Amino acid sequence: MSPGPGPSDPLMRAALFAGRAPSLHNSQPWHWYVQAGQLELRLEPSRVLRAADPDARLAILSCGAALHHARIHLAAAGWRIDVIRLPDPDDPGLLAEVVLGEPAPADPDAVRLAGVVQRRATDRRNFSAAPVDLHRVHSVRGAICRERADLTLLRPDQVIRLGQAAEYAYQADSGAAGRRESAAWIGGDRSVGTGIPAAALPADPYRLGLAEPARLMRRAGTALIAESHHRAAVFAVLSTAGEGRFDWLAAGQALSAGWLTATTLGIAVLPLSVVTEVAASRDLLRPLLRPPGNPQLVLRLATASDTCSPATPRLAPEAFVSRRPSADVR
Fold first, then answer.
1. Contact 72, 110 (CB under 8 A)
2. Residue 128: its pLDDT value, please?
3. Distance (Å, rounded) from C-alpha 143 to C-alpha 72?
4. Which residues constitute the domain of residue 26?
């Protein structure tokens, strides 16, 4: 009988590495199950923001980012893998299975991306910087397109429509349940290992003075768009051809690929998920897409700052990785 998964198991290491992936409000809504030769990625219902994300679209997108992290870790470590996405229609919580193959030469692109995972960060500050290099931005788009998604760069005049969508999302009120949910995920010191700590929120006193965290985040997104309109930032819409769980998972893998590529190129990425949380605001963005598609996330791309952004907390490994015993050998 082969030994079960342990600290030296490449799949266990890949699952732990994937815990660094970005997610909606740092909710980390994934759970990995490791067994001999196979890794399962499941949606963790307790970390889905039901008011802000009732269809779990952004939660599944977040899980897609974790899946991409696991993939590049294994490729960089010199393993071939098979990835089966949404393998069981009767089990919607099972998002992917990763099956370990034979050893292979380390993939140099995966090595490059895996090497910047610890440096990747969300920079919510609005800073003045040199104009972003559009050649590098197109390299980010190329990485996204290779993951079955697309990135539409917005012209300055189209940013007006983006601002309208952000304002619409800001005005949307998800009710008392949504306010309680946001308060549980945004602000404070986040000692539980999830959520966005107060130190990582915009430092502008006007934004931090807002009483409700959900409206704080929406207003911050609106203000950043307005303040960046005539500055060095480029805004873009991450989209997919279809609209469903497979597409949401693909969008997350594309986000991870694009964001890590951006990090290697000195580009700071700020996802503005609040702009796409509301269906009506997504509808305002749809006419901007070329080619036509379904908006999943808005990204602000800017030249990276020399100073580091505050780190967000992470779950303890036992909260998102579990071992399953190997099947009995008879």
1. yes
2. 59
3. 13
4. 10-118+318-323
- 294 shares its domain with 148: yes
* Lowest mean pLDDT, pick from 1-5, 65-69, 154-158, 188-192: 1-5
Residue 274 has pLDDT above 60, yes or no: yes
The DSSP call for residue 116 is T
Q: 142 with 257, same domain?
A: yes
The pTM for the full model equals: 0.90
DSSP secondary structure, 45-65, as one string: GGG--TTT-TT-HHHHHHHHH
Q: Exposure of 13 by Cβ count < 10 A (0-12 exposed, 13-18 middle, 19+ buried)?
A: middle
Q: How many other CB atoms are there within 10 angstroms of residue 265's CB atom?
A: 19
Tell me which of 220 and 10 has the higher pLDDT: 10
Question: 49-86 as b/e, with b when 16 or more CB fall inside 10 Å?
Answer: bebbbeebbbbbbbbbbbbbbbbbbbbbbebebebebb
Residue 193 near residue 138 (C-beta atoms within 8 A): no
The token duo for 37 is: 């030769």
Claim to verify: residue 162 and residue 282 sit in the same structural domain: yes
Structure tokens at 46: 């307790």
Is 129 inside any structural domain?
Answer: no
Per-residue pLDDT reduced to its tens digit, 164-196: 888 887 777 656 777 788 778 888 888 889 998
- Which DSSP string do the residues of 52-100 spell out, in sequence order? T-TT-HHHHHHHHHHHHHHHHHHHHTTEEEEEEES--TT-TTEEEEEEE
Residues 224, 167: contact at Cβ < 8 Å?
A: no
The contacts of residue 231 (CB under 8 Å, 6+ apart) are 128
Q: What is the dihedral angle through the alpha carbons of 172, 178, 180, 181, rounded to the nearest 10 degrees?
A: -120
